[in-house]
Design a protein that fits this description.
By secondary structure, this protein is an alpha/beta fold. The chain has a domain at 2-189 and 226-250 and 292-313 and 340-348: NAD(P)-binding Rossmann-like Domain (Rossmann fold, 3-Layer(aba) Sandwich), CATH 3.40.50. The chain has helices at 10-22, 61-71, 85-90, 93-115, 121-124, 157-176, 198-207, 227-240, 257-271, 301-307, 315-328, 330-338, 344-348; strands spanning 2-5, 27-31, 51-55, 75-78, 126-132, 180-185, 187-189, 212-215, 221-226, 246-249, 254-256, 283-286. Helix 6 (157-176) links the parallel strand 5 (126-132) and strand 6 (180-185). Helix 1 crosses helix 8 and helix 2 runs parallel beside helix 4. It starts with a strand and ends with a helix. The model has no long low-confidence stretch (mean pLDDT 97). The protein binds nicotinamide-adenine-dinucleotide and thymidine-5'-diphospho-beta-D-xylose. This is dTDP-glucose 4,6-dehydratase. It catalyses: dTDP-alpha-D-glucose = dTDP-4-dehydro-6-deoxy-alpha-D-glucose + H2O. InterPro entries: dTDP_Gluc_deHydtase, NAD(P)-bd_dom, NAD(P)-bd_dom_sf, Sc_DH/Rdtase_CS. Residues 3-322 form the NAD(P)-binding domain.
């Protein structure tokens, strides 16, 4: 049994599906079901005894203690977070609570649980903290990509809260010996991503004939990784990562935002041509995000050298699959946009 937090969100849900497809090991999934949590994504697991869903908050110490003692997981894979940079700018409070206080609560619960464990289970226990490349700050155009030794220079309330959580995880290892590993990953994309993030927002807006808002000059650069590659990296680090280490995870795929959006427009022109003309007509340059980091780039050589992980999906195939997925799943999108997905728990899913 493993405990996953945030397993109803974009990456967490992809991870739960990927984990159960790749291993028979059961998962207890603790998720608060904020606006970003969507059990409809996990509907294929209804009735599957290997998946136990618990609606709850990672800040609730009594609940986390009870889950650890009931299910005796051999690992915690910690995804739960507030994840959207723009939301963190408009309202940083929840980011501090979930990302900082929530991680602290989990670490304390894990420390107590692990401290009471007997060998050999104790030696095998792992706390895997899922984090981001944004903790390293912004790179100059010609600067070398982030390695694991790059200093922390977070610039947004989101990245500052994730940096704080990374530091807590590090300290709990250094001080208490808690067996932790941390992954710092670049921008993920793929099925089931909430349409507030760049790629799904552009697909959904284009299909609705709405403006495609490009922040600033559109030349901000991100590294993009297909979500199932992130899932395989996490499985690899969980299995073989060295204790107390951090591993950068990336797609070797740096791209300016405008290139991403134009690529989506071209794929849609081919797969779902619009009578109104090419989708690029919808490109709209808007006011820049405050404090907008110019460039992120990940040097993922350590995880390849030590653990043999490399991304399997190219951007060309990954972005096509992603656009196709949104074309094939209008109900998922409609339910997210109408808020109807929130009803899923009450009507369609047995929650403990
Ligand atoms: P998401 O916003 O799609 O999902 C977050 C999930 O956490 C949701 O299901 C939400 O209900 C849950 N949650 C939020 N607060 C909670 C709380 N207090 N208690 C329990 N559950 C709570 O996020 P995502 O994009 O899937 O990201 C998952 C993790 O990966 C985050 O830690 C994020 O920082 C990290 N990450 C994301 C990316 C990316 O590109 N999306 C890249 C690198 C790292
Ligand atoms: O409408 C938009 N227009 C636009 O130009 C949106 C939503 C975004 N952008 C730009 C801002 C960024 O430069 O596109 C880029 C990507 O934006 P987001 O999808 O909001 O992602 P980002 O801010 O890079 O952060 C993401 O990657 C790292 C995730 O949201 C984080 O959780 C993860 O840690």
């Amino acid at each position: 049994m493993i405990l996953v937090t945030g397993g109803a969100g974009f990456i967490g849900a992809n991870f739960v599906l990927d984990w159960l497809a790749n291993s028979g090991e059961p998962v207890v999934n603790l998720d608060k079901l904020t606006y970003a949590g969507n059990l409809e994504t996990l509907k294929s697991l209804q009735g599957d005894a290997r998946h136990v869903f618990v609606q709850g908050d990672i800040c609730d110490r009594a609940l986390v203690d009870a889950l650890l003692h009931e299910h005796r997981p051999r690992a915690i894979v910690h995804f739960a977070a507030e994840s959207h940079v723009d939301r963190s700018i408009h309202g940083p409070g929840e980011f501090m609570r979930t990302n900082v206080e929530g991680t602290f609560t989990l670490l304390e619960a894990a420390r107590a649980y692990w401290g009471d464990m007997a060998e050999p289970a104790k030696a095998g226990f792992r706390f895997l903290h899922v984090s981001t490349d944004e903790v390293y700050g912004s790179l100059a155009p010609d600067a070398a990509a982030f390695t694991e030794t790059h200093g922390y220079e977070p610039n947004s309330p989101y990245s500052a809260s994730k940096a704080a959580s990374d530091h807590l995880v590090r300290a709990w290892h250094h001080t208490y010996g808690l067996p932790v590993v941390t992954t710092n990953c670049s921008n993920n994309y793929g099925p089931y991503q909430f349409p507030e993030k760049l790629i799904p927002l552009m697909i959904v807006n284009a299909l609705a004939g709405k403006a495609l808002p490009i922040y600033g000059d559109g030349m901000n650069v991100r590294d993009w990784l297909y979500v199932t590659d992130h899932c395989s990296a996490i499985r690899t680090v969980l299995a073989n990562g060295r204790l107390g280490e951090t591993y950068n995870v990336g797609g070797w795929n740096e791209m300016p935002n405008i290139t991403i959006v134009k690529t989506i427009c071209a794929i849609l022109d081919e797969l779902r041509p619009s009578e109104a003309g090419p989708y690029e007509r919808l490109l709209t340059y808007v006011t820049d995000r405050p404090g907008h980091d110019r460039r992120y780039a990940i040097d993922a050589r350590k995880i390849e050298r030590e653990l043999g992980w490399r991304p399997a999906e190219s951007f060309e195939t990954g972005i096509r699959k992603t656009v196709q997925w949104y074309l094939d799943n209008p109900t998922w999108i409609a339910n997210v946009q109408s808020g109807a997905y929130r009803e899923w728990v009450a009507t369609n899913y047995a929650v403990r």
